[in-house]
Amino acid sequence: MRTTVDIPDPTYRKLKSKAAQRGCSVKRLVLQSVEKELRAGTARKTRVRPPIVRSRQPGTLHLTNEQVYEIVPFP
User: Fold this and answer.
1) Using CA atoms, how far apart are residues 33 and 35, in angstroms rounded to an integer?
2) C-alpha span between 30 and 47 (Å, rounded)
3) Cβ neighbour number for residue 62 with a 10 Å cutoff
4) What angle do CA 56, 60, 61 make, to 5 degrees?
5) Which of 15, 35, 37, 59 is the most buried (most CB within 10 A)?
6) Do the domain assignments include residue 73?
7) Is residue 19 a contact partner of residue 25, using CB atoms and an 8 Å limit?
8) Distances (CA, A) of 45 to 13, 33, 34, 42
9) What pLDDT, on the 0 to 100 scale, is given for residue 14?
10) Could you tell me which residue, 1 or 41, shows the higher pLDDT?
11) Is 74 inside a domain boundary?
């Protein structure tokens, strides 16, 4: 199927450059990106594991907010 997408010039230049770096066409890079996005919606969720924090007395760990921010990587 054929479709038309309006891409701003600066974005297209970046897209074309990225395709050249990967050694593929702009069309192929766009198709790969769309397919990846569509798969992401159906991918199985992986279990998130909390960070392990060692304690001298398990079950009695007291942390300040600053210590939590050092341990847990927040975006």
Assistant:
1) 5
2) 30
3) 6
4) 75
5) 15
6) no
7) yes
8) 34, 20, 20, 9
9) 96
10) 1
11) no
